[in-house]
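chain below, 187 aa
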Amino acid sequence: MNNNFLSNKIITWIICILIALCVICLICGCKCLPFWNNKPIQIDPVPKPTEQLWNVVKKATSTTSFAIPIIALGAVVMFNGMMKLGMSAIIFGSVNLFMSLASARFAFGMAILGFVGSCVAVIASILIKNKALKDIICNIQKIKDIAKDNGNSISGNVIKETLLKQEKSTQKLVQNIKNNLKLKKII
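prediction:
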């Protein structure tokens, strides 16, 4: 009984393979069977990497040509002390170059890298803000607890010591928010 089961299983597999081959031949014709085809298979030669690079350079658009000097200018400005302006120029030039290359040559790969990069940037931004808010709320609660224990009186030194325990990213985020509020004349 066991041998009969194995032989039935093998025959079933052979029939399935033959049916699959027949379907492939019906769909593709003789192209799927190169030994039946009298025409030799022609393979297009793959250009060398230097030829591929030259083809990309020949097809460079004005946006690609514009992006490279912007990146270089941003690096020079950043190293001369204007960090925000330099980084803004580098980011602008990089995004400009990225988008022009993505649409010209490396569409799928660049699109995936751009999507992953933007997702990582958004997630990092959310995590940093949430961490800062948690840190601020915890420190304010500590200050309230200290004030409650001291009869609602608290010294400035206790507040400063508590706030200095915040992480650097939280202190930087709080300082940026304060500067924005001062510019808007809210505080």
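The chain has a mean pLDDT of 76. The helical segments are 2-28, 49-58, 62-79, 83-104, 107-149, 156-164, 168-183.
thats it, cya
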